[in-house]
Structures are given as structure tokens and as C-alpha cells.
Amino acid sequence: MNRICNLFGIRLPIIQGGMVWCSGWRLAAAVSNAGGLGLIGAGSMHPETLREHIRKCKTATEKPFGVNIPLMYPEIEAIIQIVIEEGVKIVFTSAGNPKMWTEHLHNNDILVAHVVASTKFASKCEEAGVDAIVAEGFEAGGHNGREETTTMCLIPAVKKITTVPLIAAGGIASGESILAAICLGADGVQMGTRFALTKESSAHFTFKDRCLRLNEGDTLLTLKQVSPTRLVKNDFFKQIEEAEARGASADEMRALLGKGRAKKGIFEGDIYDGELEIGQIASSIHKLQTVNEVMKELADDFNSALKRMNELTTMN
Questions:
Q1: Are residues 10 and 115 in the same domain?
Q2: Residues 190 and 216 occupy one common structural domain
Q3: Containing domain of residue 264, as a range?
Q4: Any residues with CB less than 8 A from the CB of 266 and at least 6 apart, and which?
Q5: Alpha helix locations (H) across the chain?
Q6: What pTM does this model have?
Q7: Looking at the domain assignment, is residue 311 inside a domain?
Q8: End-to-end alpha-carbon separation of the chain, Å?
Q9: pLDDT tens profile 173-199
Q10: At which of 175, 202, 229 does a domain end?
Q11: Structural domain includes residue 303
Q12: What confidence tens digit (pLDDT) does each residue in 280-289 have?
């Protein structure tokens, strides 16, 4: 059996990214009900809001689901405590040292996967004893690795130095790309952008509509002084670009970002002055679908691609 399916008790080795302002209980439950693993994104929730989403998700699905927790979250202790109290059994951590909470979560019978963007941090994950590693290439939307390593380069490199189940992320939105990731050594995939642009995503319709009309090259990795982030090119992006061009300090960049810029763009739909976080692969997605439609398409396209590969003449 597939190692990721076996680990999490799911039918398909597809994990939905726990994205800020997109990954509420509706999206997580829909993905879990469709055979994957849904994640609630705690990064944009107050602790009691997270508790509410966990409880609603439990009502909406009997399948496994998890919570994604950025370790730099200011109320991390409260978030961890709520996850434990509510009986969540799967946690994906990111943006921090995996040693911080893995042992504590394990002591409460919680499986832990950690997101990395380099072999260096993948090695630290293995040392920390995580149950799975998410290796995310720089094609991904939102916060990203400073190394700018692509998924196709990162997955085989991480596979060589680790033994735990490996999940590929970044630029994956089709059955063909799932097959490619597995060929490179991944046991499963995590998708953010593809699920952010579904009907069940909690992102604003205007944000989804803008992302569904993106062309190749309409997103770019920026904010490298503060925290590398892939954004849609809009008026806010131009402000960042101009500030960086004149040598603005990290403090100036943080002031420009201000508070709630991602909420403004993704959740409230301000596509001009908001921070629009989405992956490169958005340029290949042009219709708003339900999670069930997406999952069926992924499975059908994967099986078709696998059949084509099996029909190829062996190289010799």
C-alpha cells in the first residue's frame, strides 16, 4: 500500500495545503470526503476560531483530516493545546524548527509532517522524528524557500537523504504532475493552488476569479529581504518592487506589508492593494470546480498518464 495512504488512513495520496484564508473546514472536509487528506489552515485563525473549524469539520466528515500550523504563529501554545483538546490526530507544521513541538505532539498520539524547502532542513526533520516530510519547491504560492529550488530538483535530492514518507509540493495540480512526483521518489503530493481555486475554498470569489485568469509569468517570488513570498503582480506588488529597487530596509518592507495585507487580498477580495498569494501553476487552471470534480479529474488524468507510460517502449 502507498506509504502516505497507510500513514494517514486515506484512499488517495493527495493532501490539501493548509493555506491562510483558503483552508477552512468546508474545504478540508470536502477533500477528506473525496479520499484525500484535508487540512485546516490555522495560520489565519484566532485560537477559538480554529476550535470552531475543527468541530465543524468533525461534523462534516468521518474521514481523517488535519491542521496546518505555522510554528512562528504568535499564539502557538494556545493553538497546539486546542488541537490536542479537540482530538486532532494529524498536524502539518511549517515555518520553524520541527524539534519545537514534534515530541510533544507525538506524546499526544498526533502524527506530524513538516514542510521544508531544502535538503538541509529535510535532514533536520528526520532528526526531529517527524512522520512525514513535505518538500516544497519554489513554484509554490505564498511563503517560500530562500534557495529557490524547483520541485523537480528538490524531491530526488530529499529522497536520497531521508527515509520517512515524502510528500511533494509546489507546482502540482494535475494527475500527470502527481505521477511525475511519484517517479521522482515522492510517496504522495500536497496541493495548495489547485484547492485554493475550488468552490469550497474560503477565499473571496474575486481573488479566485483573478487567479483563474493568470497567465504564465503573472506571479513572482518577492519580499526576499523579509520572507520570500510568491505573489500575483498587482498594484501592491508594484509598491514592493519599487521599494526593493530603491534599497528599502527590511523594516521599511515590513511597514509596507502592514497587518492584514493577505487577508485583504485573499479573504476580502481586494485584488489591487491586497497580498495575492498563489502558485505558478495557477496559470494552467482556468475554471472554478468543486473538490469532487478536481479529485475525479486528478485520478482520471493520473491513470491515463500511467497507462501511457506503461505503453512506452523500454529504453535500452
A1: yes
A2: no
A3: 205-281
A4: 20, 21, 22, 203, 204, 207, 274, 275, 276, 277
A5: 3-8, 25-33, 47-60, 76-85, 102-107, 119-128, 151-161, 175-183, 193-196, 205-211, 235-245, 250-257, 261-262, 291-311
A6: 0.95
A7: no
A8: 30
A9: 999 999 999 999 999 999 999 999 999
A10: 202
A11: no
A12: 999 999 999 9
